[in-house]
Amino acid sequence: AFGSGLTTILLGAAAVVPALATRWRAYPVLGWISVGAVIAVLARIAFDPTIVGAQFLSTTPVFNWLLPGYGVPALTFGFAAWQLARTTPAMAGNGRPRLAMEAAAALFALLTIAMLVRHAMHGGVIDTGVVTLAEQAIYTLIALGAGAILVAIDMRSPSSVLRYGSIAAGVVSVAFIVIQHFLALNPLFTDESTGRIPVFNLLFLAYLLPAVAAGGLALYIRDKRPKWYAAMLAVVAAVLAFAYATLSVRRLFKGEFIGLWSGLGQLETYTYSALWLVIGVALLTAGVRLKSQVLRIASAALISVAVLKVFVFDMSELEGVLRALSFIGLGAVLIGIGLFYQRLLTRAAKDS
Q: What are the coiled-coil residue ranges (predicted)?
């Protein structure tokens, strides 16, 4: 067990030797030898992701063979990339090994964190067990954080790997959110327990925190990355916030298990309409203040859905006072939005 773990670490460390050799002889082949070490480590962990074998892997969180097995290669690949950038001219293809080493360093840094998370959440077993929503939420937050870190590093030391890698991290995180958070692992469909704590529960971890992270990343990269990328993150952040608020209302009425098949009450139905209108107005306000067309469009879409729900669903499901309140609230919001836009247009006319 010790031998196989040490082999992985030494293979990763071997990438440093040819990179250091470029201090004396800047032969292009030296950079490719470092890349060869990356390929060897990838083959090694593909054969045994546990580094030392599942039966020998300690159940102690963090401080086990996964930390040096993935972490040391991440550090050595990063150092090799830094060394190649200093000593190998980026001409005639000589810069490609450096870019490959940068990509490998970023990949292994993410793998280190992801493997440690999986190890900790599955009692020391990483190759069995279904991914839960809580675990997936942590992976999503890691991907969003990696996207921000890569952007920050790219601002200091520009690199195409960092530039495209940061976008890839964001796109992967959005894919996680759409496929896992909204569909496959959504407690509305799985009826997974959301926890007994009112605020700091599964919904907080899986929807609100990623919403804040995606929104923060969208603001951070507004002038640093393509507009479509920032818009995508902003939309996802808004939808996550909407999902958190909606599912929290569901939890308020149903308790920790919010499966869709448990039905809808009249008061719960009315609460959704009111909540969606409030969120729509909040998105409109944020869109105006941040001068974000994406948020304004999201606001219009959500308010349209709320209006449709009131006329199609609430009219048939609600009775008495709740039906009246639903229409009164809708009318008040629409009038308020109209006055708000009238004020904006008046101000714009004066400024012009």
A: none
pTM to 2 decimal places: 0.86
pLDDT, tens only, 259-292: 998 888 888 888 898 899 889 888 888 888 888 8
pLDDT of residue 198: 84
Opening angle at CA 16, ends 11 and 19, nearest 5:
135
Mean pLDDT computed over 210-214 = 97
Question: Where are the chain's structural domains?
Answer: 1-129, 130-263, 269-352
